[in-house]
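PROTOCOL LOG
Step 1. Enter all chains and additional molecules of the complex.
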Amino acid sequence: MPVPGFTGKTGIVNAISDAVTQMLDATARAARAAAVQLARAGRPTKDRALIAAAAALRARQEAILAANAADLADAPGLTAAFRDRLTLTPARIEAMAEGLEQVAALPDPVGHVLAEWTRPNGLQIRRVAQPLGVIGMIFESRPNVTADAAALCLKAGSAVILRGGSESARSAAAIRGCVAQGLREAGLPEEAVQMAPTQDRAFVGAMLRAAGLIDLIIPRGGKGLVTRVMEEARVPVLAHAEGLNHTYIHAAADPAMARAVLANAKMRRTGVCGATETLLIDSAVAPSLLPALVADLRALGCDFRADDRARAILPELPAGTEADFTTEWLDAVLNIAVVDGVQQALAHIRRFGSEHTDAIVTADEAAAAQFLNGIDSAVGLWNASTQFCDGGEFGFGAEIGIATGRLHARGPVGLEQLCTYRYQVHGTGQVRP
Amino acid sequence: MPVPGFTGKTGIVNAISDAVTQMLDATARAARAAAVQLARAGRPTKDRALIAAAAALRARQEAILAANAADLADAPGLTAAFRDRLTLTPARIEAMAEGLEQVAALPDPVGHVLAEWTRPNGLQIRRVAQPLGVIGMIFESRPNVTADAAALCLKAGSAVILRGGSESARSAAAIRGCVAQGLREAGLPEEAVQMAPTQDRAFVGAMLRAAGLIDLIIPRGGKGLVTRVMEEARVPVLAHAEGLNHTYIHAAADPAMARAVLANAKMRRTGVCGATETLLIDSAVAPSLLPALVADLRALGCDFRADDRARAILPELPAGTEADFTTEWLDAVLNIAVVDGVQQALAHIRRFGSEHTDAIVTADEAAAAQFLNGIDSAVGLWNASTQFCDGGEFGFGAEIGIATGRLHARGPVGLEQLCTYRYQVHGTGQVRP
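Step 2. Run joint prediction.
Step 3. Record the structure below.
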């Protein structure tokens, strides 16, 4: 992802990049102006835009499918999985429309009073949720992200610049057209939701360096994309990095609960960031419980990478390396390590984990507290599946991703996390001594 | 602030930088290990460290003054203001010690339950405040920042790497020695509060690029320092940039309140970031009120830069340029512009302001609401001085700075804002459908 505008040495490269930089500048300035209007729009106006956008998606179904067919026709060499993510169907368009309506039904986060207190001198201080401003969303070729991200940013009162993968460019433009229609019908500026005006990769670089024009970058995609964004960005990033998650079966775990929770945590969906990648099991119960856990998962099609202590119990398990224990499989593969109690489990997680989501299964409340206070993960669970790390499951209604950094927001990012705050102070003429 | 380790081309520069990078690596890894212990330390342990550090400051007063004298002797060419900031006295050391004790008296932010709810499936979700991890503090030659920053980070459960200006290196090391003594007496690792092991500027560059080792950089100093940090950092930054603040005297302002608030907002202390730099006054009251406002301030030693409409009322006022209206004077100079109502005031602030702190003086509640909802500033005040933008005045007990970005925290940054959060989820064996 070179950024010729900032690093190029030839006149030609600089000329291209100047044009791209000017495009970014024009796009972002239009977004900022729209954001000022959107920030002051009330809930009814924003909801009207979302509902009208949903109607437009349904009304323009044929045109969207045609744009999608053109995208697919232009990309013959894709893998089956990539084609599947890229492909739209009437059912998927209906799901997008329903998604927009669901966001309309959520409460407005803007203006929510987060805290309120009065000082001894009579000053009344309120901390109030406020839109972030302009959000840059960089994602891969999933057309539905266009509708999801537009809806969440719009409801949170922020303008958004969407830069999706080039393979889905026509589909995304058709979907964005429906959102623009919704904005117009509500009397809001359609520049509040914009597509990148070029697929030139230099535009991504320009977005990442647009401090002062773009307030936040959200990357959504594979590790390569997220890593590049984090390395290049001059704008704050809400990154969604890897989920190397552990489920720890404590000595005092209920065996049936342990089996049900682990099978769900690993195999419900293996490709989501909340999936468990490593099983830690206490040595006191491993001999009796591990065979059943492994049999359950094997029946579901799971493969294994086991440490020596696990292989002493089940010698047929393939041997796991250090590299395996740091691998986010996102697949039907489970690392297994046997540990001696909570402290060893915590040490393993601190060494190999990614501070995303980790769970303990135990009937011992003290052990659970020790575990939950001992991990640094964004989400810690006691007696529940790691796959609950999800904005919908948290009750946020919708999410734009899972944040894995430590600043601003951690875990599922919904409307509340897409806002910032400000203070409103009411006085009666107070001056400071 | 060149970073030879990353940009240098000669072998010698790379060798120096490798050594500096290794120093950073060792410092930051020791800080991370200490942070794990500090994060789990209870309030009594942390408070014991703070109180013991205060005692050490008092006990070692002579040694600290000697170190400070050596710093001053080595820096003969400094301005009087710089020497004053650098100079320690018994009273200033006592103030630092009391500051540590005040932080000890504040509630522990760590573990505070920020939100709590139960899902329909019975999952109990809690959002709990948690330490950030390792904080890098980059500041200029104010020795007291060493004690202030160490105390706040320690109480917030985070380790800190302090990199102060080279002119105050001996003073800062002596103060840090007292904090280390406090940590030891409380049984905490002294690596929780470290000084940069070198004054090589490459170390600052290494700190700024230490993503994964340092969780947050806080720069505290002039515009040049903050701008450099924001441009170079790969680690999230909580920046304290400029405060180009406005006090807007609305047509319905009480004249006596307007005079008292403006005089305080501009002249209480002119060098603080909450000081007012520009007066906006409604055209309806400018002819009657502006002469008194100007006379008040002139009597306090203030100079002026006025627009044409203000000079039509008071022709002796010096003419202000566009550049003046974008200048954060931090001095006894006030820009003056006459406006026609709230909308024009908002347009002026949007064009020239820095989204830091802005105030309206009015008896008209609707006008106040329009103003407070119309600005994007971190702090908006109604009928109060802009100089109230301060952690102590907000009731935070102490502050590490004023954040001017939009992510994570805005306005005064106290203990609460120095924390992040995580989720703790209690289940009874739930699996995700």
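Step 4. Note key features.
Chain B touches chain A through 65 residues (CB under 8 Å).
Residues 223 and 277 of chain B are 16 Å apart (CA to CA).
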